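hey so u asked for the seq, here:
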Amino acid sequence: MPSRVRRCGVFLMLVYLMTGCGRDSATPTSPTPIVPSSPFVGAWSGRIVDDAVGAGALHLTITEQVAASLFGSWQSTFPDAMFNDSGPLTAFLNGSSAVFMTLSSTSSRTCPVPISPATIAANLTVTGSRMTGGFTALGCATVRSGTLELTKQ
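ran it, structure tokens below
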């Protein structure tokens, strides 16, 4: 149980840091370079396997890279449409082969439901045109996990 609480705490801290480091700062200290030919910008598609929901499709659209940050949107679809979700995407690059990504839900489902909408935090490894790794999803009162496998389109 302490491990789950610690993971949840780390997850919440990372989500807070990712969402708190906004692009809309009123007083930027210096211009932030937009990366014009980023290998990350574009469409990514693949598979999401959620330990509670099962397998589904995941589509990311990364629209912008600013320094080491990525921004865009995402959409997941599952055999049971009740679990489909979408929302904004933010990510932080750690070098050229590691990505910490946050997928925030814009679902209108409210708690309690068997599987609540969740913010997904994923640690992905980039190899060529593929991103793979695990994720943790934190919803109303649930913590779920699973895997992502994405290919650049």
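The longest strand covers residues 54-66. The CA atoms of residues 56 and 81 lie 10 Å apart.
lmk if thats what u needed
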